[in-house]
Design a protein that fits this description.
With 194 residues, the chain is of the alpha/beta class. It is built from six helices and six strands; from the N terminus they run βαβαββαβαβαα.
Length: 194
């Protein structure tokens, strides 16, 4: 379902969300002037059991001063998120990084099942500082498979931060502790099942 050029005067009510066909798996808002209320309602809709949306596109929407992460609630089926031309900058990347960091088994609160696999952040004015933040999060994130950062203000320093995290790297003490705890839990589960 594609919604293009929606203006601020156009209200998307809960009636709209309740009448979305149950088999919709992709929702696209392009070049729309949506407000925080619409984003909040979208987040509520994404948390319902009936919602099958696994691809969400919010392209060309100025999200620089909005809480756009409410569109990726803790329990959601969204696996692909496009946020191109949204004026996110490094501040937006910081908000996204908090969510990405919370995608490992032991990093999230109980009940959270975030499974974001694709994130497109093209043309958002992201600098090396934002990429360094993403790089640190990618050390622990095991679900994100595709990250697009085309046409941002990323220099060699930011690219190098990504390269370093995507190649083999030594684990920190906290990461080693987390890994050992996880392996110990697996061993206990295996012993219990035998």
């Amino acid at each position: 379902m594609i919604i293009k050029g929606m203006t601020a005067n156009c209200t998307v009510s809960m009636h709209f969300w309740n009448n979305i066909p149950k088999n919709i798996s992709k929702l696209t808002f392009t070049d729309s002037n949506i407000d925080q209320e619409v984003l909040g309602d979208l987040g509520l809709h994404l948390m319902t059991n009936e919602c099958l949306i696994n691809e969400l596109t919010l392209d060309g929407i100025d999200l620089s001063k909005k809480n756009f992460m409410c569109c990726l609630p803790p329990v959601t089926r969204v696996k692909k998120l496009w946020l191109r031309f949204c004026r996110l900058g490094d501040a937006g990347v910081d908000r996204i990084s908090e969510t990405l960091q919370c995608q490992g088994d032991d990093f999230c609160d109980k009940g959270e099942t975030r499974t974001l696999q694709l994130l497109n952040l093209d043309c958002n004015g992201i600098t090396c500082a934002g990429v360094k933040t993403l790089a640190q999060v990618l050390r622990a994130n095991r679900t994100l498979r595709i990250l697009s950062l085309a046409k941002n203000a990323i220099k060699d320093e930011g690219a190098l931060a990504l390269v370093n995290v995507l190649s083999k790297f030594a684990l920190t003490e906290d990461e080693l502790r987390w890994k050992n705890t996880r392996e110990l839990r697996r061993t206990r589960i295996l012993e219990w099942t035998y």
